[in-house]
Design a protein that fits this description.
Shape: globular
CATH class of the largest domain: Alpha Beta
Structural class: alpha/beta
Strand order of the largest sheet: 2-1-3-10-4-11
Number of strands: 11
Order of helices and strands: HHEHEHEHEEHEHEHEHEEHHEH
CATH superfamily of the largest domain: Bordetella uptake gene, domain 1
Helix content: 40-55%
Strand content: 15-25%
Number of domains: 3
CATH topology of the largest domain: D-Maltodextrin-Binding Protein, domain 2
Radius of gyration: 21 Å
């Protein structure tokens, strides 16, 4: 009981100083400028709201070193997985607005408001925006022995078999689920969705022929495509990928308006000084221009966002647009999480 009381007291004390610091920066512009000039004076924590080894974690580890070098302080990665990324994201939303705890998150920032009925944070009100970092393309796959060989044949096959066609996903809120929802929405069909606890088991069952389709990130499935262990029906980007040049886009095959990428951006708690955000943005841009980072991202089939997107204003605009885009699709599909 004493330990619980002590921890509760420490938590209240941290919250007090966080609020006090935010008030000082708000009412004292000179204090904000002085703070920004010396920032950072200690290591920074970059929260990844997912488990290690996933695409978002991969990007975090690739950019953390170069960003830290630009800022003159180390950036430590903290993985806080759970509830589709909401636990780690909430950790940053509640952190002190001083630039020492920041967030890297994917398209889930835009879909969470529709997926979760009681989301404990507001992506548009509880964060400052550092910039978009990368775009992770996706591809629609089929099991190797699925009869159709292209999208037109797949559409005919689906119409003939309807709900007997299964489509796997990596779980509630996963990008693979969103891709599946968008595919069904654009095609006007309802397939049998089968959720898994992660991409690995979903992909295992696709490789084993237990499920028919899976739409997921190229970082996860690229090697299986190149080894012809699955059928690739199309990539979800506007143009073909340099890493998979022989796979047509879904759009060029007639599925107009089908575009989804697991874009990834960086955020800070609401109230973080503008000058601090500017320093973090500069460090992000420097990292994305690092030759070694470019090579590693290309090897992972991850595309660096155009520099015009690597800005606070662009990330905010993109997030708003994606929230408006995905909300109706998720609500119409009844794809809610508790």
């Amino acid at each position: 009981m004493k330990n619980e009381g002590f921890l509760m007291g420490m938590g209240l004390l941290r919250n007090f100083f966080a609020v006090l610091g935010a008030l000082v920066l708000t009412i004292c512009p000179l204090g904000e400028n002085a703070f920004a000039q010396t920032y950072p004076i200690k290591p920074i924590t970059l929260v990844v709201p997912f488990s290690a080894s996933g695409p978002t974690d991969t990007v975090a580890h690739l950019i953390a070193g170069p960003m830290g070098k630009d800022l003159g302080q180390e950036i430590h990665i903290e993985n806080i997985a759970g509830d589709g990324g909401t636990i780690g994201t909430l950790r940053v939303a509640r952190a002190a607005p001083d630039g020492y705890v920041i967030l890297i998150n994917h398209i889930g920032m835009a879909t969470a408001p529709a997926l979760y009925k009681k989301l404990p944070y507001d992506p548009l009100k509880d964060f400052e925006y550092i910039g978009q970092a990368v775009d992770v393309p996706m591809v629609l796959l089929g099991r190797k022995n699925l009869p159709p060989n292209n999208l037109k044949e797949l559409e005919s096959y689906i119409k003939s078999n309807k709900t007997h066609v299964t489509i796997a996903n990596a779980g509630q809120g996963a990008v693979s689920q969103l891709c599946g929802l968008l595919f069904m929405s654009r095609e006007g069909v309802e397939l049998t969705s089968i959720p898994y606890h992660g991409t690995a088991p979903a992909l295992t069952d696709l490789l084993g022929g237990q499920v028919d389709l899976l739409c997921d990130q190229t970082t996860q499935v690229g090697p299986y495509i190149q080894k012809n262990l699955v059928k690739a029906y199309g990539v979800t980007t506007p143009a073909r990928l340099s890493s998979l040049p022989n796979i047509p886009t879904l759009q060029e095959q007639g599925l107009k308006g089908f575009e989804i990428e697991a874009w990834i951006g960086l955020y800070a708690p609401k109230g973080t000084p503008t000058a601090v955000i500017a320093k973090l943005n500069k460090a992000l841009r420097s990292a994305l221009n690092n030759p070694a980072v470019k090579t590693r991202l290309a090897e992972s089939n991850i595309e660096i966002a155009p520099m015009s997107k690597v800005t606070p204003a662009s990330l905010k605009q993109h997030l708003e647009s994606e929230i408006n885009r995905w909300g109706p699709i998720i609500r119409n599909a009844g794809a809610y999480a508790e």
